[in-house]
Amino acid sequence: MQATQRTGTPALNGKHFLAGGIVAAGLMAAGVAGAGSAGAAPDDPGSVAHSAAAADSASSGVVSRPSRLSPRGQARKSEEREVDAPQRRVERPRADSDETTGEDSRPQRRDRTPRATTDETARPSRTVTTSTPDEAPDAAPKTDEVTVAPAAFTSARTSATTSSATPDAVLLAAATSTRVTVGSMIVDSLYSMGIRSRRMGSDWLDIPVSAAKAQRWLARRQDIYRDVLSSQPTEPPVGNPPGTSQPKLLWETNFSSREEALKYWGSQTGRWGQSAGENQYYTDGNNITVDADGNLVIQVRRERTPDGLGAPYNYTSARVVTYGKQSIGVGTRVEARIQVPPDSGLLPAFWTVGLEPGHEFDWPRQGEIDIMEIPGFGTPASRSTWTGNIHGPAKGNNGVDVKMDNIDADLGVDLSAGFHTYGMDWYADRIIWRVDGVEVGRVTKAEYEARGGDWTPFSGEWEHYLILNVAVGNPWTGDPSASVPMNAEMKVDWVRAYQL
């Protein structure tokens, strides 16, 4: 995706840069005073209230990102993400072209519509085919990320520092961001003094800086957030022997070729999700490719579908699954490195469905774990919000869906702008979700049973298979605009499973 510049963003020149420097100096001075009087509480939004107010009056271009949007509850899909932080790899800078508003326009969570489980017309094709990605050319080096080496600078913090405990996802996103603006430099500087700004993760004071200055600041940023970066867990080494502290790799797919992909993946075709209000037709391979960088690419197009249905059902997509080839169970960590499309009306997902013997297609009784879903509302908040969930049967009624609330996180970065690692750790009594190595949600057996749910599908009684797909239109995200061209892609670099 081409990076575009925000409309109305002033170009860099001496005048704007001088103004930005004056604002930065003023905020730093105010930050020192605030830290001295308030004890430098990093997570207290009020600790930067005076500084933020001063900046608001100094710049007419200051806007704030809408607050966190609620997750949804759509039938049978979801995904989770896990952290990919060990080597401190960060995405290339992307210019954010999203519009922003000052109001909290978060849509309300919608309950999932239970899927028909016995009506064959609702899901006319439940076949698992082996037409997966076409063979790709020799894999070229990937160019979507930059590795920033740790800086050799000493800390410039002059007041109380923040806790060295594992940070939240917004803080990690700020630490690993490669986008440098006047506003982000000010936020970084405040953090170096022990003050966590409420502007962290927003597009506030979106004034660009020169490439040379950005490169120097990226090195400085590594030093400012060194405690955050050093607290991140390292990636489990491949093939680690049993008995060590790190999980052992069980299997992986790097999508280097058609043959390699077919080892673990096939496709499910037809109108899966139609009973949940979705509009796509999943094809048997026409919407699946492997690109030159070794990514599985799921394409979404508006076109004539194999069953000939007209608008709004004239979309094709793909649903790639490990059904019949590979499965995971309790005691497993699973993760995938994915770049999601930003388009409105789409729902890219990474999720699992249970393999209860004889009831593999009876939802919700067989269980579902949503590892990651990024709802396409077309807003900056939706593009930065991860959602996950579990869906299972109610105690005494296996046809009633029981799910959790508020398993989501606003990560403060546009997730469609680059690759991120989404995953989960699955234990017999709990499920933990991570994005780029940071825990973003968890649910326990006790919590689920307190809501009236039956934990059996998540207890290890049976295993689950994995699904990667992009759905089109549903009561949660709404339908795509018929006047906007649709040719979207979800890219998957790799999928890995580890033994915990």
TrEMBL record:
What GO molecular function annotations does the UniProt record carry, in alphabetical order?
licheninase activity
Q: Where is the composition biased (Polar residues)?
A: 124-133
Sequence ranges of Basic and acidic residues compositional bias: 76-123
The alphabetized list of GO BP terms reads: carbohydrate metabolic process
Q: Does the keyword section mention Signal?
A: yes
What are its E.C. numbers?
A: 3.2.1.73
The protein's matches in InterPro entries, at most eight in alphabetical order, are given as: Beta-glucanase-like, ConA-like_dom_sf, Glycosyl_Hydrlase_16
Report if keyword Signal is assigned: yes
Q: Where is the signal peptide?
A: 1-35
Give one Pfam hit by family name: Glyco_hydro_16
Which UniProt keywords are given for this protein, alphabetically ordered?
Answer: Glycosidase, Hydrolase, Signal
Domain GH16 as annotated: residue spans: 202-500
- Major enzyme class: hydrolase
Record field: compositional bias (Low complexity) = 38-64
User: What family, per the record?
Assistant: Belongs to the glycosyl hydrolase 16 family.
PANTHER family named in the record: GLYCOSIDE HYDROLASE FAMILY 16 PROTEIN (PTHR10963:SF55), GLYCOSYL HYDROLASE-RELATED (PTHR10963)
Please give the name of this protein: Beta-glucanase
